[in-house]
Specification:
This protein has 327 residues and is α/β, with parallel strands linked by helices. The chain is built from 13 helices and 11 strands. The chain is 42% helix and 22% strand. A hairpin with a 3-residue loop joins strand 6 and strand 7. The radius of gyration is 19 Å and the shape is globular. The N terminus is likely disordered.
Amino acid sequence: KHNPEGDSQFLEDESTKIFARKVAEHYSARTNQTLEEREASPIIHLKKLNNWIKSVLIQLYARRGDAVLDLACGKGGDLIKWDKAKVGYYVGVDIAEGSIEDCRTRYNGDADHHQRRKKFTFPARLICGDCYEARLDNVLADDAPFDVCSSQFALHYSWSTEARARRALANISALLRPGGTLIGTMPDANVIIKKLREAEGLAFGNSVYWIRFDEEFSEKKFKSSSPFGIKYKFHLEDAVDCPEWVVPFHVFKSLAEEYDLELVFAKNSHEFVHEYLKKPEYVDLMRRLGALGDGNQDKSTLSPDEWEVAYLYLAFVLKKRGQPDRT
Ligand code: SAM
C-alpha cells in the first residue's frame, strides 16, 4: 500500500497546516491595545503610515455602495476606512478566531478603545476561515459578486505552497465581479532578497525588526528553488513574530493572470508615499492620521528604522478581466 508520492504530498500538507496554524495562533493571541499602549508603541508612526497607505488605496478604488470582501481582515482595523468610503456591504474573513472576535466587537461598537463611535452604516458578515485552503465561492455564494476585494499585509501567507497561492487567487477571482478590483499590500520580495544578499549571514534587521531565512535558503539554493515555500521568520516589534513566505512579484503577477486578474500597478511603499504625497488631499489625510512619511528624525514622524520597515512592503492593484456591469 506504500505510496511515496501520496506520502510526501501528505507530509507537505501537514507541515503547511502546522505553519498556517502557527500564523493563526500568533495573530489570535495578539490582544487589543489601549490607546495609551498604542501611542507608546515603538512603531506607532509606521502603523499610522500603513493606515494611510490602506486609506489611500480604499479612497482610490472603493465607491459608495460597493460590496467589499476583506480577505484576512484581522481585527477590523480598516472598518472605519470602509465606512468613510460609504461602502454598502462588508464581508471580512480571517483565519485567526481571536481577531475575528475583536473585529466583531469593533463592528458592534462595544469596546473600541480607539474611538467611541456610532454604529457602522453598512451591514457586515464576519467569518473565521482559512482563505488559502477553503473554497470561498461556496461559503459566500449569497454575498458575491464583490466590487472590491482587499487583502492587506496578508497574501504572502498564501505563498507556502503553490496549491495555497492558487486557492487564494482562485477565491478572489471567483468572488470579484468582472471589472472588480483587488487592492492589497504585501512584502516586496525584491527588497527582501536585496537585503539578504547584502547581509553577512541569513539574517538582517534594525532596532524594530529582523528577518531570518532558514539555512536551506542560502542564496545559492534560493536561485534554483521553487518560487513557493521560501520561508523566513519575521519579527516586527509590537506587531509580528511568525513564519512568512517570499512572494516573487513576477510570479504573483503571472499566476494572477491565470485567474483573470490583471496588474494595474505595484509600487514599493516608499514610491507610493512619494507619489501620493504630491496630492494635497492625501497630505491632509496623513496629517490627520498623525504620520509623516518623509523619514526625517522629528519625534512626530517615522524614525529611520520605521521608514526602513516601510521599504519592505509594496502596494498593488489588480483588476478582474471583463466588462463592469455598472458604471
Ligand atoms: N488585514 C489586516 C490589517 O491590515 O490590519 C490584518 C493584517 S495581519 C498583518 C495578517 C492577517 O492575515 C492576520 O489577521 C492573520 O490572521 C491573517 N491570515 C494569515 N493567514 C491566513 C489565512 N490562511 N486565511 C485567512 N487569514 C489569514
